[in-house]
Request: fold
Amino acid sequence: MVGSCKNRIIKIEGGYDGWYDFTLVSVHPKSEESGPADAPVAVSGSRGISTAAAKETIVIPYNNLDAAETIVKKFSKEAAALIVEPVAFNMGCVLPKEDYLKGLREITERQDVLLIFDEVITGFRMAPGGAQSYYKVTPDISVFGKAIANGFPVSAVVGKKEVMEITDPKKGKVPFMGTYNASQTSLAACDASLRQLADGKVQNHLHRASETLVKGFNEAAGTVGVAARMQGIGGKFQVYFTNHEVSDYRTAALSDEKKYAVFQKAMMNRGIYFYHGTSFPTHLFHHGVSYAHSDEDLNAVLKAGEESLKEVKRSG
Reply:
């Protein structure tokens, strides 16, 4: 596999995997440009990237193994790797269906395509070993950042020996260099952070927090009588104003953006910060709590959430 000449990438529709031209495709595509749900059209994510990127990148829907099987098989001779966030946070917070990640692992192995997990957000939040440990699926390559050093600027690319050997300084075919590689301050922060995260105590706190918020919010939505749902895991969460299951980019994008805007403003007025920006659809952003947040903080979020849902209902 490593020695084969493949130069295309398969990515998830609605997924964000960095500013690299060939992954900055179909990040938040418009519905009228996206093509069929089971065979998405690749849409450039920025006017500032190469026009070749959208033509070279292959897009598949999240949580759809049948479509993944068909598309990966079709492009197996051209595609070097499939990259996916184990939990799709660029859609808010969309969890993988049961056996979805395992299915991707089996499909990519059968078709001789590398599987890459983008664990920049899930890494060390889901479990000490990342989402791959939590879901018990081992990719060929993983990328980590953010929690790996608690905010210090450092990231990591890790993978199976036969894959990573391609960057060997003497024998490899892919150079790996950078001005700030192995920055001592960042690596010291990385070491200290990973020691704190190693026993699972932080992750257990985050899982319990998101479970508390999801349960409390969804009960409140039912009581108030608003079509809304919160989805969350590992301390991360998002609110969707919809009657339907949110399982991929298109179902997430169909949630009511206007109602979300009313909710977001109402939460802000009650001292709870829900992101509101202009660079991408706010109702598809993700939010989260940290290890520092207490039960009192969670109760404050839920209380504000119920009152804000009442404002959404009054707004019509």
